[in-house]
């Protein structure tokens, strides 16, 4: 009589298991990849409206509305004209508060409580750990999502 074995245990034996330093390296690489993906300027910032575009404030006979004496500028105009990137804001804050705590120098003491163990997929409390990569998960549904999309797939 053959013993029954779960498919999850068979899959776990074929996968590579990472030690703690490899897991930390993997997490650091994933964060660096996310930071690199997120840092870019707005691709639509330098778009200019075409002069051939129809102006909807014109009447049918071609004359403009003469009741308007002064053109007001929208808030979007000022947002684009005086736009500051994150790096510019950091430099300004560093210049304003060189000695005091700012975004780059602020630190919090380590917590007195144990680390929370949350699911890497949904964020709920997670009692289980993925064997190959060490990520946490809360249910078999989250485990299958983790294995399909996250587990050692993008960075190793």
From TrEMBL:
GO CC annotation terms, alphabetical: nucleus
Give start-end positions of Basic and acidic residues composition bias. Answer: 1-22, 29-44, 54-65
Give a single Pfam family match.
zf-HIT
Q: Which PROSITE patterns match?
A: ZF_HIT
Instruction: Spell out the molecular function terms from Gene Ontology.
Output: zinc ion binding
The question of whether Zinc-finger is a record keyword is answered with yes
GO BP annotations, alphabetical order = chromatin remodeling
Locate the HIT-type domain: which residues?
119-151
Instruction: Name the keywords, alphabetized.
Output: Metal-binding, Zinc, Zinc-finger
Disordered: where is this region?
A: 1-76
The identity of this protein, by name, is HIT-type domain-containing protein
Q: Which organism is it from?
A: Scylla paramamosain
Query: Lineage in the entry?
Result: Eukaryota, Metazoa, Ecdysozoa, Arthropoda, Crustacea
